[in-house]
């Protein structure tokens, strides 16, 4: 098994390269440069290996990046809803955080024109999550271009958590054009863009705990690398080599095709369920990632108490949902929404939806 994935015994004898192996950083640089699936990193692109820092998962990447760049008194703008770390960490570091709310009426796509009312003279960073958790909505290319132009005109760092990239559901669709799949933010020509990513989501390799930070701004990478020295000497060499193997040409496309196929298959099952119960639940259909943000209402149209709803579903069916207002809305926003992680083994989702179907008949009678 070790021989099959090309693990090198000698690499296990000591700590690895501090910033991550050259082999892995080349592959990540190729991904962040918009290279094709499974590029070996040998073709010059937007980024090179020196523009990449390997971390212990995206959660480690996000934290060390924010810890390095955000200071007390800074102002940060962050999309909302999103992964809580992205706005809670800046706040804990003494920054003033403005939440840039995504609206269902706009398909959960950010409205760049709203930034004029949010930006301040001391705005240090704008944070996005693309594709978004919990909505599963990617930001279209024209919107990204407008966002980059806005940040560039004001010399603001633009940080994109791209942990769910490239799990776009139309990635292998014969009818989809390149314009339907937004490129990495690092390809838009603005050096003060920083992206983070991981092997955990799109590649379904959460167990190896490999993430990264990438930016064309070498001063940012150097500053983050210096801060990272206080927490990490190097990532696991086994993890590093497995990640390199997963991103290699023979493996990358089949691995991603498998995961995209699972997402598309399972989303269709969830769509059928929502359509059947459209009197009490609705969504903006996710186009990427593994999560959906679904709104449940009573027959009257009033949103359910999502916390009580999730607890009741768990108690009655052993099916676990994440309450939107509690986990993504500070207990006040996104009432009635629940996040569902649906890209699991299909038979698991089928069983969960069958149990939920029985629950719905009792909880939401006609």
From TrEMBL:
InterPro entries: Aminotransferase_I/II_large (IPR004839), NHTrfase_class1_PyrdxlP-BS (IPR004838), PyrdxlP-dep_Trfase (IPR015424), PyrdxlP-dep_Trfase_major (IPR015421), PyrdxlP-dep_Trfase_small (IPR015422)
Gene Ontology molecular function terms on file: pyridoxal phosphate binding; transaminase activity
Domain Aminotransferase class I/classII large stretches: 16-355
Record's signal peptide: none
Gene3D superfamilies, alphabetized: Aspartate Aminotransferase, domain 1, Type I PLP-dependent aspartate aminotransferase-like (Major domain)
Pfam families, sorted: Aminotran_1_2
The keyword Transferase belongs to this UniProt entry's keyword annotation: yes
Domain of life, source organism: Eukaryota
Entry keyword set: Aminotransferase, Pyridoxal phosphate, Transferase
PANTHER family according to UniProt: AMINOTRANSFERASE FUNCTION, HYPOTHETICAL (EUROFUNG)
Family: Belongs to the class-I pyridoxal-phosphate-dependent aminotransferase family.
Protein name: Aminotransferase class I and II
Organism: Colletotrichum cuscutae
């Amino acid at each position: 098994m070790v021989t099959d994935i090309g693990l090198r015994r000698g690499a296990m004898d000591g700590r690895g390269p501090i910033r991550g192996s050259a082999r892995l950083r080349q592959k990540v640089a190729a991904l962040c440069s918009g290279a094709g699936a499974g590029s070996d990193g040998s073709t010059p692109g937007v980024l090179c290996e020196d523009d990449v820092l390997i971390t212990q998962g995206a959660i480690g990447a996000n934290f060390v990046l924010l810890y390095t760049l955000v200071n007390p008194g800074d102002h940060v703008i962050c999309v909302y809803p999103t992964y809580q770390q992205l706005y809670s960490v800046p706040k804990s570091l003494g920054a003033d955080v403005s939440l840039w709310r995504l609206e269902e009426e706009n398909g959960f796509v950010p409205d760049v024109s709203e930034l004029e009312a949010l930006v301040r003279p001391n705005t240090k960073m704008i944070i996005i999550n693309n594709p978004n958790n919990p909505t599963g909505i990617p930001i279209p290319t024209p919107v990204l271009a407008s966002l980059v132009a806005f940040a560039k005109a004001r010399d603001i760092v633009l940080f994109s958590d791209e942990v769910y990239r490239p799990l776009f559901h139309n990635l292998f669709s014969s009818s989809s054009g390149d314009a339907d799949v937004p490129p990495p933010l690092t390809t838009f020509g603005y050096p003060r863009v920083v992206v983070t990513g991981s092997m955990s989501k799109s590649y379904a390799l959460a167990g190896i705990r490999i993430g990264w930070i990438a930016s064309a701004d070498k001063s940012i990478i150097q500053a983050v690398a210096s801060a990272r020295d206080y927490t990490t000497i190097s990532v696991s060499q086994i993890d590093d080599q497995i990640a390199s193997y997963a991103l290699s040409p023979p493996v990358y496309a089949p691995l991603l095709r498998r995961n995209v196929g699972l997402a598309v298959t399972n989303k269709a099952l969830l769509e059928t369920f929502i359509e059947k119960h459209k009197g009490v639940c609705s969504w903006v259909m996710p186009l990427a990632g593994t999560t959906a943000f679904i709104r449940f209402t009573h027959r009257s149209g009033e949103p359910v108490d999502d916390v009580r709803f999730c607890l009741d579903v768990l108690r009655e069916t052993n099916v676990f949902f994440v309450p939107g207002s509690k986990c993504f809305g500070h207990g006040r926003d996104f009432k009635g929404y629940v996040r569902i992680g649906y890209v699991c083994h299909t038979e698991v989702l089928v069983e969960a939806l069958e149990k939920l179907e029985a629950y719905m008949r009792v909880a939401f009678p006609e």
